[in-house]
Amino acid sequence: MPHSSGGGSHGGGFHGGSHGSGGGGSSSRVRRSYFKGATRYVYYKNRKPVIVYSNYDITKPGSLAVSILLGIYFLILAGVCFFIPGFAVCKSITIPKKLTIFTEPDILIEDNVGVIKDKDGLYDSLERFYDETGIMPAVLTVSRSDWKLYNSLEHYAYYAYLDRFDDESHWLIVYSVKIKDDGFVDWYWEGMQGNDTDNIITVKKAEAFTKNLQKYLLQSDDYTVDGAIAKAFDELTPVVMKTEYDSAMIIANLLAFTPIALMFLVMALKNLDHRKDKYYRQAMVCKQDVVEQKKCEYCGGIYIKGMHTACPYCAAEIPQEFQPQVIADSQQ
Ligand SMILES: [Zn+2]
Fold first, then answer.
1. Domain-ending residue, one of 209, 241, 273
2. Could you tell me the distance, in angstroms and rounded to a whole number, from the CA of residue 56 to the centre of ligand 1?
3. 3-state helix, strand, coil in the chain (%, to 5)
4. Would the N or C end of the chain have less CB density within 10 A of its end CB?
5. 151 and 237 belong to one structural domain
6. Tens digit of each residue's pLDDT (9 = 90 or more) over 88-99
7. How many Å lie between the centroid of ligand 1 and the Cα of residue 302?
8. How far away, in angstroms, is 317 Cα from ligand 1 center?
């Protein structure tokens, strides 16, 4: 059903996003010094032992599956943010698509009250609009008495549209005038656009058109009725197919969804990061009192006494007294 694109008369008419607590991302920690709940690990890097404290098993790499799952959560949230109507950023971006239902212009200019002076000029303006948009414009002028049985000119324009067009691709401008006995010109106008035009004649563009047409109609010394309509169309035509952004909506959507979506992304990346450190894989749990360092007599690498039977760098056997005592005991 067509609906009003605007009109006038002589009288002149978030939801806040919840922030993630960080989840698993910030709770898995590796530090150089002890913290509550941490296990002490040693690994060897650059021929030296490195002691780290961690509250998770650093020898087990992060699961790729978990990262993928978290990544999917991120994509779903991003998808909601961008593509689900009602919230979506995509809904805030309108890319007009030219209508193709008409193969040639069939522009109606129906002047019942004789106010249109330059019909050809008006036709040319309307045709340029049609060429650009594929929307079929139409202009209808009526007298006040034609719609006195209707609640409003909008109401009348609605039925006038349905009477004349059996599609949703027209844009009908209805102009009503009554010249009173004292010469006062009592005029009203209403635009009625088919639903299929909504993607091109957006609320914003309809408002701009309405404002312009109203302005020119008020300047009756400078513009005839058809001149005002033609000028309003001529100003809309060059910009009507431009992509429209509702930046306030885009920002509101991003503010609502980005914190949660990013939390999942950070968790996924942190989980991947745990996989990354190859030194962590060969780390060994190391008791707090195991601290004495020894130097390998073959390669010169430094290792921790009491943890190895062979050098962690060159695999040479290390002296019995530096080997783990438990194993030494069992061997006896
Ligand atoms: Zn060695």
1. 241
2. 29
3. 40, 20, 40
4. C
5. yes
6. 666 778 889 999
7. 8
8. 8
